[in-house]
Amino acid sequence: MPELPEVETTARMLNERIKGLTILDVWTDYDSLFHKGKGNIKDKNYFPKFKAELVGKKIKGVKRRAKNVLINVSGNKTILTHMKMTGHFLYGKYEYKNKKWSPTEDGLLKDPFNRFVHLVFTLSNNKHLVLSDMRKFAKVLVFDTNKIDQIDDTKNLGPEPLSKDFTIKVFQERLATKPKGKIKTVLMDQEVIAGIGNIYSDEALWASKINPLKLVKDINKKELDTLYRNVINILKQSISVGGDSMSDYRNPIGEKGKYQNSHKVYRRTGEKCSLRNCKGIIKKIKVGGRSAHYCDCHQKLN
Fold this sequence. Notes:
6 helices; single chain
């Protein structure tokens, strides 16, 4: 699932490319009885309203909130997209042929991971913004921009870890809301801190020498200070290389991110720990139903 760095990369790149353009048309083949009445485009009764709200509107800008891409358009409307497991936005020239959308030019957009197009915005510069989503888990809806703090998808989100207001004090206070929680689980709780998922929680805990099973209340101040710095630094490092493409993620021009080349622990099960002078082996366990990777030596549970 795209996490903060991947979503931030997407939002920044889209803002550079589509800001100021007008939406001329919207197409989708999402259609799910499971989502009937749930207020997103997978409900075939919702999509006509979605389209009507957006056609003819000018794109004012693109930004990120937690793991959501927010596209602000004229008329006090915002498109919210949570890309879920395999979704990612792509931008370029497409054509609809043989009941599918395909890029018209050779290049990275033709990467096989980019072929699962289920949502298309036709733009005023004769290009398209499309959502490729192999597993069709992505969530897309439109809401009144001034109600961002009232909709279910955003109203309970925690603070942004890269915000200038996200101090060590705020970090400690947020974690302290779940004192008996396992630190891996609490870091990924979007109501505690926004945007962190499996990859970056694993990497930050490894760098901080903290076991993913350790309870928040048992982490001392020095460890918290170290974890705070590592969370921020690792997120920034990943953004600087375009995010992580260990799985499906591609940026809007079809490129892979490069953070997977920097993994110290995530998906390195059975490998020797790369920490200097550490003789540990990377292990994989389940924590709160999610996978966690850690070193069995320098991340021991004390």
